[in-house]
Amino acid sequence: MPSVTSKATSRKASQLKQSRSFSHSQNLLRPVSPEELESWSDADSESTLNEPLPEDLDESWPYTFHTGQAVWIRTSGGNWHVGRVSGETTRKGQTREKEGLFYPVKFDSKLRKYFAPLNGEIKPDTQHTRRLLKEAGWL
Predict the structure, then answer these.
(1) DSSP 78
(2) pTM of the model
(3) How far apart are CA 6 and CA 99, in angstroms?
(4) How far apart are the C-alpha atoms of 50 and 37, rounded to whole Å?
(5) I need a surface site. Which of 39, 90, 93, 133 has the fewest CB within 10 A?
(6) CB-based contact 100:30 (threshold 8 Å)
(7) Are 85 and 63 in contact (CB under 8 A)?
(8) C-alpha to C-alpha distance for 101 and 47, rounded to whole angstroms
(9) Could you tell me where the Acidic residues compositional bias lies (predicted)?
């Protein structure tokens, strides 16, 4: 019988694989109009208040990000980096759960890529996120 640890490791590997496959389909992203973004943000804000905080870095988090906000992102290689949401166009596309928002993030001083909270690949730079990063050995 598999141990709890091996089940959790297997689940994380599966989630990471799913997230990576969605990250690579970024050519399917579409621009979001300001009206869509506002209505989407309102819906996310309401659900965020009712959602428990993620217990794992790979968990999705229906969080609304804003231009200039400091964030942590997971690259396709699985590494976590600090970044900042840029003023570029927010886009929408299929995530591992449903259609969701993809935020443009600048990181490593010159790289820019889109990341989706519903793929578990972008988190706000908060005490909770830093605790998760520390527990996972990233800080």
Answers:
(1) S
(2) 0.71
(3) 30
(4) 20
(5) 39
(6) no
(7) no
(8) 14
(9) 35-45
CATH label of the domain that carries residue 9: 2.30.30.140
Query: For residues 62 and 120, what is the distance between their CA atoms, to the nearest angstrom?
Result: 9
Quote the number of domains for the chain. Answer: 1
- Residue 98 C-alpha from the chain's centroid: 13
Q: Burial code of 50-86, b = ≥16 C-beta within 10 A, e = fewer? A: eeeebeebbebbbbbbeeeeebbbbbeeeebeebbbb
Measure the CA–CA gap between 14 and 37, rounded to whole angstroms: 30
Taking only the tens place, the pLDDT of each residue in 26-84 is: 458 888 877 777 776 545 544 555 668 889 898 988 888 999 999 999 998 999 999 99
What would the pLDDT profile of 57-66 be if each residue is shown by its tens digit?
A: 989 888 889 9
Its domain, for residue 26, covers 4-135
Residue 41 identity: S
Per-residue tokens: 53: 């905080």
